[in-house]
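Subject: complex prediction, re-run

Hi both,

The earlier run crashed halfway through, so I resubmitted it with identical inputs.
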Amino acid sequence: MVVDAATDPAQAENGRLPNRVREEGFFAPVRGSLAAIIVLSVLGAASSVVPLIAIVELARELVPALSGQPIHAGRVWAIVIVAVIALFVSFGTAFGAGAVGHFADAGLQLALRRRIIRHLQRLPLGWFDQRSSGTVRKLVENDVVALHQLVAHAIQDVLTAIAVPVLSLAYLFSVQWQLAVAALVPLAITAATYPLMMRGGAEKYRQYDEATAALSGATIEFVHGIAVVKRFGQVGRSHRRYQEETRRYVGFVDRWTRDTSTAFTIIELVTSPVVVLAWLLAAGAWLVNAGAVTPIDVLPGILLGLGLTGPLMKLGSSAQFLRNATKAQQSLAEFFALPTMPQPASPRHPAGHQVALDTVSFSYDGQHRVLREIAAACAPGTLTALVGPSGSGKSTLAKLIPRFYDVETGTVTIGGTDVRSIDPAELYHAVGFVFQDVQLLRASLADNIRLARPQATDTEVETAARAAQIHDRILRLPRGYDSVVGEDANLSGGEAQRVTIARALLADAPILVLDEATAFADPDSESAIQTALSTLAADRTVLVIAHRLHTITHADQILVLADGRIAERGTHADLVTAGGLFARMWTDYQANHARSLPEGVQR
Amino acid sequence: MIRRLLHYSSVSARRLLVTELVFIVATALLQGIAFLLLVPLLRNLFRGEMGALGTWLIALAGVSIAYVVVAWFASQIGMRASTALLDSLLNRLGDRLVNLPVAWFSRDRSGLITGIATQGAMFVSTMPYAILRLILTGFITPATVLVGMYVVDWRLALAMTVMVPIMIGGYRWLRRAIGRGDAVHSVAVADASNRVVEFARAQPTLRTAGEGAVADHLVEQALQRQHRAYRGMLVTGGAGIAAFTGIVQLSITVVLVLGAFLAIGGSIDPATLIALLVLGVRFNEPIAGAGDLGGGISVARTTLDQLDELAAVTALPEPAGAGTPADWSIGFDNVTFGYGGGAVLRDLSFTAPAGQMTAIVGPSGSGKTTITKLIARFYDPESGTVSIGGVPAPQLGTSVVEAAVAPVFQDVYLFDDTILNNVWIGNSELTREQVIAAATRARVDEIADRLPNGWDTRVGEGGSNLSGGERQRVSIARALLKDAPIVLLDEATSALDIGNEIAIGDAIDAVRADRTMIVVAHRLQTIMTADQILLLDGNGGIRESGTHNQLLAADGAYARYWHERVDAAGWQLSAHN
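This time it finished cleanly. Structure:
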């Protein structure tokens, strides 16, 4: 029983409380509201018992009339007034607790989303890869919202579930202990049956999560692969795998349901109003018959005894949401626990724009070294090209300079200063980069270009756009520079690339890390991008990841990477003459280049 | 809601569900009767008539036993019905996915479908017992009590009856208020999370800008809008809840005051009044309980809505009998097509001769890939016809088109299986040796060689262990294996390393023999050697067409394009201007 097995209050409570203790800082923005919720909830619970007691008192006033005694109208009205006031106080406080809780939830959501933003701003840039978008979306869209149950409902539900039975029992014992004991019986049976139902619960939940993950994996593959399997007449294969996982999942749910169904149904019946009512009346009648109590004393037991289990059961019905909330809280906590980029305690300024790497080693996972003992220097105003087969570490190396990652051993310096001791703001003003994955914001083109330099004037923006060969294209858009990307500005890949080049030109960082891959996605953009890149590279310290070897024949220095080491270095001419790895790559490259530039058009 | 549940149930699940509902209604009625018995019981108790009390107690015991038995079955059948419903929901979903047109999957739908399969189906399947039962009980039990009250004291019963339409009105108003706020809020949530994701993606650039940049404002504004929308929803929803709960409280107050008034006047038996008051306070609990179930209902309802949407997706029209193409030529005749927005192709006409290679070039967004998708019949054109061997695709039928066409698109999907099995998908009839032979012609053997377990190495989820170029080689191998007469190729646009570029060139040569090929071409080599080149004009039409030599001689747009590409191919980067 999946959802229903979770419908037990104790389970929900156990899952929640330790987390709240551990994550005290989490709810700090709404601490005042939480206190208000607690006070209002307890008040609400207490005042909800009062009308019931009032009915008992009313009975004490009215029942003697059966034997002909007069009714004290004044006292009757007094009791009715107290009951009505209590009803509305109870309603008001419960509503108040709910309202405070929901507004606190709204506040907490805003605070948490802002905190996510702040944390994003401090994470090392290396964290932002393909997968990060999905993670961020889940955090802001699902996890923050899932906390709703915790703040807006759980506190009130739990307090009500505790306070109402405790207050009711206290009253019952003070009035008549035998019936109070009788009222406790259903609770006692539940307490005894409960462990039976939850036997191996943690393990079952683990298995349930596993079965869900397997089903979700099969579903994703089914959906992603459907175009492929349809084209090759292999739909049955994917469908079968999905069906198998479905069977396994349903089978597990079915077994779990059967295992717990008897205990679950027993608890449900024992706490049902009908059974409780019959039991209390029978017990009351027997006690009256035995002369142990007066008839009127049976009434409190019935009125309050019926209400003992209700709040607990209500708490149970929201347990599934609580479980989600707890999971969401964990994933948020894990995100906030991600280490931020270390900031220098006393920042130092770089002296000049010489980039140097000294015995740099790096690994992503602490085990497999991607870069080993790299030593290199890029003089100001020169172009350094990184070449090597895919997986040789050239992209990783380039990303160490703008601190996407920090080195494991060795140092990366700019102007003789370790990049880790430069104030990040200053570092990013010194190092610009243009990578293949173009990121434009859904904002105006002007804002996109001045993204890295918000104070740039319109003229400066336009100059940069001209230099990046994108000005004319922008003017053809309906609102020119005010056109919004994704709304009335739908740019091709190559055009977007030129916008990012304009952005880099405007930022005017003296050091530039470039990915040369001007993919020929956009043939009509290709030469425009090249012109833009040439303008951008001029008179800077440039480090370029080169894919097409002929583009870097004029480089001041070529670093040839293989297996994370610099295998060779030198100018193009030096390396070709040396007859090593680069010379072989060059020969291969030329052979292929000759194929793609057939005779007659060869340059 | 019940009808929708039954609609998505298998025959056995439907039988279980209906039985479950019958038992639930019976429990609710029995519960109402048990509550009503409270009146004679309390009356006799307070009057001290122990003999009559005993009789009524026996009656209550009888009703209770009946209740326990019926509720037991309701619960047991309910659990079986849940499992059966879960099973039929998941099977329905799987069957539907198989039959949906491929075009529907062009956007990534995995999040939606996985949501339905895991969380959604579970919520829907537990809904009859966990939610519907409470709603039904919340209505039937009080109604039973109300009917019984007329027998006991018609004045109090009438007072309660008057409150019923007010309560229903209040409840409706409440749901509407919540629904309205919900709609505004969910738009704001989507907007805010898009902004945050964008903010995360643009981080590398934003770091340069420092804090307080444009993006910071955009994301903060979106967050505040979302916050305002949420608070707005709380105010309208809160007002609704306050009004509804207020009405319920008011109805109890009415009974209390009226009862006290009648008792003082001596026109009601005090014992009866007390019994009715006990019922009165319990009266509102199931109703209020029904109001708290919103969360679960909305998840279940969303899932059912999504299933309805899936069911509403229409497939392309299929002929009664499959057509037979005369040959493997492809014809576009006055084809106009767009993806629901403006037309991407306008009155486009051309013929791709059988057994020859046609290269499509043109600016991005000019509809190159769209042409290949129309040939593969992901879509039908809005007007005009796409035909194979002279027969329009709707007369051929999707299955004939699917069998005739092997697509090699850019987004190659690899299964989390071995590299060999990923090629094998192309044609499961072949032996392992035949598959390896074909894969070798597409140069996939080189990839297998570098992997730890050779052909039997798993490629990871979505083929994450292979580069883009390597994935395209696997895709070409599949097409070779399928041995379809028409091959559609969307050449990789991302920069490939030299090894891959050579290998793909060879693989294309291997595919090319005797097949009709349509290539969205980027490599100069491919373009130049095509039997026919179509240069698209960027406005949905063809600007020039012919062979490479003819077009160069014409010295028009294609010649300019070609020279520019050749110039670009010789570009060199330098830090010194």
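Chain A has two domains: 1-174+327-346, 355-596.

- K.
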